[in-house]
Amino acid sequence: MYIKNVNQNRIIPYRMLLSATSAIKELVERILPENGVPSMRIGLEKLELILQSSVKKAEDGLPVVGYHFSFPAEFLQCFDCVPVCVEGTSYFLAAFLEGGSEKYYDLMHNYGHPFHTCTSQKGTMGMTLDNLFKFDSLITPAAPCDCTIASYPFFKHEKEIPLVLLDMPFLREEKSYEYYANQLKEGLIKLGKVIGQEPDFNKLKKAIELENQVNKLKLEIFELIKTTPSPISNLYNAISAGLSIFISGTPENLSYYKQMLEIIKKRYKTREHHGGEEKIRSIWPYMITFFSIDLMEWLDRELGLSVLFDIFNYNFYDPINTKSDLNAMFYGMSRKSMGLPMVRQSTEFFGPFIEYCINFAKDFSADCFIYTQSIACKQFGSVPQLLREALKEEVGIPMLLIEFDAGDARMTSLKSFKEKISMFTQTLS
Ligand code: SF4
Fold first, then answer.
1. 167 CA to centre of own chain
2. How far, in Å, is the centroid of ligand 1 from the Cα of 142?
3. Is the distance from the beta carbon of residue 195 to the nearest atom of ligand 1 less than 6 Å?
4. Is 247 in the pocket of ligand 1 (CB under 6 A)?
5. How many whole angstroms from 268 Cα to the centroid of ligand 1?
6. What residues are paired with 141 via a beta bridge?
7. Looking at ligand 1, which residue's alpha carbon is closest to its atom 3?
8. How far is ligand 1, taken at its centre, from the CA of residue 339, in Å?
9. φ and ψ of 297, to 5 deg
10. Sign of CA pseudo-dihedral 239, 70, 85, 407
11. Which of 67, 121, 71, 119 is nearest to 343 (CA)?
12. Under 8 Å between Cβ of 402 and 373
């Protein structure tokens, strides 16, 4: 067994997250009625199990591998390791703790990292600078954005942590998918050498098959959201986003979506809305407020505004072929990776994005779009105005634009979000 770095304190932020998850889960169970926010109740239960397992594995001395959220977690199931999602940690802590990850953003600012970079990486970078994380290695694609590329070398240069960087092409063509398939395979082999393990491709295959099933269930849920009123709660989007990047490839993830589908089907049949009455149907084509996911519940209950989906909940992929050979499987993994949330949007030209947003507006009977422009996502800064014009012209619906930082309430606060959205809804007839 790998015993390079055995001590109890290699993943302190995961321990913090585990404590916060357990505390919130207990509150949800004790205070909310049995059927209150099931996505939260069930999601926290699954997250807690995975965090407990991660903490135990770290105590047992397994290598700690940090991964970018656009490197699907199930791909790491070919190793006996502790997978730690860099971006997920920053944002889950931002959502669950008072003051969130702000202390760690500021540590990085003082260190010299620019204030306008992505907080999704900056939180975990600050925690690593503060020696709360002791990674054995990190793996990331060269996507989706400059912030990713400019941030990950910090781990290598400041903390001398081996970094496996996968070169993801910009173009969406056959040769690109084949190239990235090779990058994935070589990257896993390279990572294996760093942590002293051979990748077990049979284990990988099982995890991928499990995620193929998850993808199917998510698609079924997505179809049901077309109905009025929406049968999901707004919080489903936040929890689903978190679980997808944190626990994919585990039976707990599959179990979450199975349970959710049953609940959502019931709501679909009874035409029940989580907030009581659906008055407005909105699509958030980019991110929700991770620094305060309670905004989702407030929108449901106070404004009757449904968030039908956000960027993490409308990207799907063709099932990965695990039945032929390894090449076919890696090809499917490549296609999935290059179509993931944010990767798809940020590395594609804006034409397709605008086109499918228009189709979503029509197919899901949306009354409006709410576009959150993150200070970090510069690659997407020119898109909102084009999208706003296209939605007005093609569908006749308005779009509210809010500039913010997804993980830092100090830029645009929860109060400010509520005011802006309340005023906007008054303009909708
Ligand atoms: S695309 Fe935007 S939100 Fe996503 S990692 Fe890059 S800067 Fe952060």
1. 21
2. 12
3. no
4. no
5. 34
6. 166
7. 377
8. 15
9. -70, -40
10. negative
11. 71
12. yes
In order of start, what are the domains of the chain with their CATH numbers? 12-198 (3.40.50.11890)
Ligand 1 neighbour 147 (Cβ under 6 A): yes
Helix (H, G, I), strand (E, B) or coil at 3: coil
Query: pLDDT of the chain along its 429 residues, tens only?
Result: 444 555 668 999 999 999 999 999 999 888 887 778 899 999 999 999 999 999 999 999 999 999 999 999 999 999 999 999 999 999 999 999 988 999 999 999 999 999 999 999 999 999 999 999 999 999 999 999 999 999 999 999 999 999 999 999 989 899 999 999 999 999 999 999 999 999 999 999 999 999 999 999 999 999 999 999 999 999 999 999 999 999 999 999 999 999 999 999 999 999 989 999 999 999 999 999 999 999 999 999 999 999 999 999 999 999 999 999 999 999 999 999 999 999 998 887 889 999 999 999 999 999 999 999 999 998 888 899 999 999 999 999 999 999 999 999 999 999 999 999 999 999 996
Give residue 129's Cα distance to chain centre: 23
C-beta 315 within 6 A of ligand 1: no
Give the tokens for residue 242: 């978190």
Q: Please report, in angstroms and rounded to a whole number, the separation of the first and last CA atoms in the chain.
A: 64
407 close to ligand 1 (CB < 6 Angstrom): no
CA gap 34, 193 in Å, rounded: 48
Probe residue for ligand 1, chosen from 118, 124, 146, 315 as the CB with the greatest number of ligand atoms within 8 Å = 118
Cα–Cα dist 355/334, whole Å: 24
CB atoms under 10 Å from CB of 114, counted, come to: 12
